[in-house]
Request: fold
Amino acid sequence: MTPIPSTTAAQVHLEPWTDADLALLRRVNTPEMKTHVGGPESEEQLLVRHARYLDFVPSGLGCMYRIVLLPGGESVGTVGYGTRTWEGATVHEMGWNVLPPFQGRGHAVAATRAAVAAARREARHRYLHAFPSVDNPASNAVCEKAGFTLLGETDFEFPPGRFMRSHNWRVDLQA
Reply:
C-alpha cells in the first residue's frame, strides 16, 4: 500500500499503519485527547488496539493510517476506518486524532478527506460513519467539512460499556 496524498490546502499525506506506530498511539492516549471517548486506555488496551489496527488490512476490516505533515514528514495524528455492525448492517466507522500542537490547521479535515477517498477505492461496505460526541464541536466540524452528511443524534457505545450522545455522520462510498 502506498502513501495517500491529501488534495487540500493542509499539506498532509497518509501512511499505512505499521508496528512502529505504537509510539504515536501512545502520544494520542492522553486525557486531553480522549476527553470525548471515555478517557485514556490502559497499556494493555492500547496493545490490543494497535494489534487490531495492524490486522485491519490483512483481515479486510478496514485501514488505519498515520497522518504525516508535509514537507517535513512529522507524524501529527491518526485516521482510519474499521468494520462494525450498526443498526443491523455492516458498515465502516471512521475516527481520527490530531495532536494538540497541530490542531486547528485543517490537518484533520485533509486527512479525513484522503481517508474517505481511500475507503471509496478499497472499502467493502457502502457506508462509512463517524460518531463524534455532540459535545465535540471540532470533530463534528471535521465531519461537515470532509463531506459527511448528518443523519441526526444517537446513543453510541464507545468504548464498550460506555454510551455517549453522538452525532451520526455518514458518507455513501458508492456516491
Q: What stands out?
A: The two ends are 24 Å apart (CA to CA).
